[in-house]
Design brief:
- With about 230 residues, the protein is mainly α.
- The chain has helices spanning about 5-25, 30-35, 40-45, 60-70, 80-85, 100-105, 130-140, 140-165, 170-180, 185, 190-220, 225-230; strands at about 90-95, 95, 115-120.
- A three-stranded antiparallel beta sheet has the order 2-1-3.
- α1 (about 5-25) runs parallel beside α7 (about 130-140).
- The radius of gyration is 22 Å and the shape is globular.
- The two termini are about 40 Å apart.
- Residues about 225-230 have low confidence and may be disordered.
């Protein structure tokens, strides 16, 4: 018997594909201009910098450079190919690709195609491009990091507000865990921000929706919620 979740999974796959097809129609010239305006961040910070003088505050500029290069790619492939295969340019030396970080800091990048080759990365669904391509159409990485910091802070404060009023026993543990995550570091990392947004939004939904479901379940029981809470 087919799983009842299969239609939802299939719908999610179709929605993800359509969204990628949509953002791949965004003009890439302006996106690439903002990518290159972000070049100085990588030059200054290096490939695996420490955002704070702590061993666990390391950023991954290798992956962030890859995200930016994929966002700004503008090859001759078909729309469906680009959306599914996730092309990007990389610097070549001795017949092998170097890596995205060394590509994005190269002074020749964007000026000439010589020495750079288009590579594809179809192993994963690169869903972050649904957000990164529109963001890079409007902002460079400097500005995106500030947007990240303020948006993540606002969502975190809202979650803490929800926990305090609806699930107070989790308020202090979450506050401690949030501090250990080093929020200023997360806001500077595109890769870590993806995961943190998912965790934040899902947590907010769980607290909100879970509380509503609990109240509905309690109301259908012969014993009042107050008695259950005492038990």
């Amino acid at each position: 018997m087919p799983s009842p979740e299969l239609p939802h999974i299939f719908a999610g796959v179709i929605a993800g594909l359509l969204l990628l097809l949509a953002v791949y129609q965004i003009p890439t010239k302006r996106v690439m201009n903002n990518v290159m305006q972000s070049q100085d961040i990588f030059v200054k910070e290096g490939i695996y910098p420490m955002a704070l003088p702590l061993s666990f505050s390391q950023l991954d500029n290798y992956t962030d450079a890859l995200i930016l290069l994929e966002s700004g790619y503008d090859g001759d492939e078909s729309l469906i190919d680009k959306a599914l295969l996730n092309y990007h340019y990389e610097k070549m030396e001795d017949g092998s690709n170097v890596n995205p970080y060394h590509t994005i800091i190269d002074d020749k990048f964007e000026k000439t195609a010589e020495g750079f080759q288009s590579l594809f990365y179809p192993r994963y669904w690169h869903g972050y491009l649904i957000f990164m391509k529109p963001l890079l159409f409007l902002f460079n990485l400097h500005q995106i990091r500030w947007i990240n910091f303020f948006l993540q802070s606002a969502l975190t404060l809202y979650l803490l507000y929800l926990l305090y009023h609806k699930l107070r026993q989790m308020f202090i543990p979450y506050l401690f865990s949030y501090g250990m995550l080093l929020p200023t570091v997360i806001g500077q990392s595109l890769q870590m921000s993806d995961i943190y947004y998912i965790a934040l939004i899902v947590s907010i939904l769980i607290v909100n929706v879970g509380d509503t479901i609990s109240q509905k379940n309690y109301s259908s029981l012969p014993v009042s919620p107050q008695v259950i809470s005492i038990i």
